[in-house]
């Protein structure tokens, strides 16, 4: 079911070119925390936000060795802790599980 919804969203995105909601929504956790657009966007006009910006506020999350049986996505055997946040955490679109380009891990990216 979830996959179907996701597919529908992707089709919409393809049809509309860019996601219609880009820039108009923030993730609930950032909304609640009272972030403003320029908490992340430090250039005018706004461009995609770099990992450097994320880690000004966030420590790289602590290593979790057992998250529902899946390995640590913040420190993987392939990339260590060096993957850009935006590979998984999108701010204006549904986040994605980058690892599942190749694996089938059961974790959900906030
Ligand atoms: C928590 C950080 C964060 C906040 C807050 C934020 N953005 Fe973004 N924004 C991003 C990231 C990361 C991207 C890259 C695409 C993605 O991950 O969704 C992006 C992409 C964009 C883009 C596309 C830029 C491009 O050239 O690709 C626009 C426009 C934009 N944001 C507008 C806004 C507006 C307007 C707000 C306030 C309502 C806002 N953003 C708040 C992180 C943020
Ligand atoms: C201005 C400070 C600030 C910036 C910049 C920022 N965040 Fe956040 N973020 C917060 C705060 C505050 C919270 C809510 C409290 C918490 O969970 O740490 C939060 C929450 C989150 C959460 C959810 C945490 C949870 O427990 O579910 C994720 C994921 C996240 N941020 C990722 C990012 C990413 C990726 C970027 C860069 C695109 C980013 N943040 C940029 C301040 C920031
Ligand atoms: C390969 C995908 C992936 C990448 C890349 C990634 N994250 Fe996460 N992140 C997750 C997932 C999945 C969770 C959900 C909690 C979990 O599974 O540990 C998460 C949770 C979080 C949380 C909530 C706190 C926690 O430990 O649960 C924060 C904050 C966060 N990520 C920040 C970041 C920042 C900052 C970056 C970039 C430096 C980043 N993440 C890169 C997948 C990723
Ligand atoms: C481009 C494809 C690809 C991506 C993306 C990918 N992996 Fe893998 N991964 C593999 C392949 C192929 C193997 C098996 C070969 C090997 O063991 O080196 C593997 C093996 C592993 C193993 C077991 C190997 C060991 O040394 O314990 C873990 C754990 C793992 N991946 C975690 C991750 C995580 C976490 C991510 C996301 C951050 C990820 N992978 C992203 C292709 C990928």
TrEMBL record:
Signal sequence, start to end: 1-22
Pfam families linked to this entry: Cytochrom_c3_2
UniProt superkingdom: Bacteria
Main localization, broad class: periplasm
Localization annotation: Periplasm
Assigned keywords, A-Z: Electron transport, Heme, Iron, Metal-binding, Periplasm, Signal, Transport
Presence of the UniProt keyword Signal in the record: yes
InterPro entries: Multihaem_cyt_sf, Tetrahaem_cytochrome
SUPFAM superfamilies hit by this protein: Multiheme cytochromes
Residue ranges of every copy of the Tetrahaem cytochrome domain listed in the record: 29-104
Tagged with keyword Transport: yes
Cofactor(s) for this UniProt protein: heme c
Protein name: Cytochrome c3 family protein
